[in-house]
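FORM 7B: Structural annotation worksheet

SECTION A. Query
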Amino acid sequence: MTALRGLALLLLLQAAGDGLTHALALPFPGAVVGLVLLSLALNWPWIREPVAAVAELLLANLSLLFVPVGVGVIMHLQLVSRYGVQLLLVIVLSTWIGMAVTAIVPRRLLKGRP
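SECTION B. Predicted structure
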C-alpha cells in the first residue's frame, strides 16, 4: 500500500511539473520540473517513505524494463545488422559527449569558488 501511495505521489509530481511547464510556457520538459519538485518534496518524511518504497520496488524489477528493448532488437535484426556499426558509433559518441558535458559544466559553474 505504501508503494502504491509513492507511485501516486510520483505521478502527481510529474503531472504538476507538466502543468507548470504548460502554464508558464517554460522551455524545458515538464518531467524535469517534476523531478525538481520531487527533490524539494523529499525533505518531508511523509513523502520520502512512500517514494522510497516505490523506488525499491521499481529497482527490484528494473530488468523487466529491458525486455521490450530486447524484443525490438530481435524483431528488427536486419536493421541492426545493416546499421549496427553506425548505431554503435552514435551510442559511443553520444555517451562521450554526455560525459564531457557533465564534467565541464560543474567545473565552469564552480570556477572561482573556494
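SECTION C. Observations
The two ends are 46 Å apart (CA to CA). DSSP finds five helices and no strands in the chain.

SECTION D. Sign-off
Analyst initials: ____
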